[in-house]
């Protein structure tokens, strides 16, 4: 049985790899274009512009749109939500709907991505 410390270290490595590779399941973050690309075997299936995911309503809209796609399995939808959460430093709920309350503040994806790039550089040192 692994200790809590071993599990935490493993999760930290996974997070560092995600930041480095910008991958979340089959979703990949394109930091230059600010989009999440969903690709299978190198073939792009779908693209979501992060600048159209600025608040809870827009994010919910994308989740519902994905749920209507025949190729979007529950895992694909989970990975999309998880990607947003991880890109925001595990603070998706706090950024767009803390405590279930709507806040009229858009996510600044350019700033978020710039900070992620900085974190990758720091991890590399």
Write the layout of secondary structure elements.
Layout: H1 4-21, E1 23-24, E2 27-30, E3 35-40, E4 43-49, H2 56-67, H3 74-87, H4 92-96, H5 109-124
Antiparallel strand pairs: 1-2, 2-3, 3-4
**What structural category arises from helix and sheet content?**
alpha+beta
Cα distance spanning the termini? 32 Å
Q: Main sheet: which strands, in order across?
A: 1-2-3-4
Largest sheet: 4 strands, antiparallel
Q: Could you say which overall geometry the principal axes of the C-alpha atoms support?
A: globular
Count helical runs: 5
Question: Helical residue percent?
Answer: 40-55%
Segments where pLDDT lies below 50 for 5+ residues? none
Order of helices and strands: HEEEEHHHH
Number of strands: 4
Q: Gyration radius, to the nearest Å? A: 15 Å
Mean pLDDT level: 88
Number of domains: 1
Proportion of strand residues: 15-25%
Explain this structure to me?
This protein has 125 residues and is of the alpha+beta class. It has one domain (4-124). The chain is 52% helix and 15% strand. It is built from five helices and four strands. Strands 1-2-3-4 form a four-stranded antiparallel beta sheet. The mean pLDDT is 88.
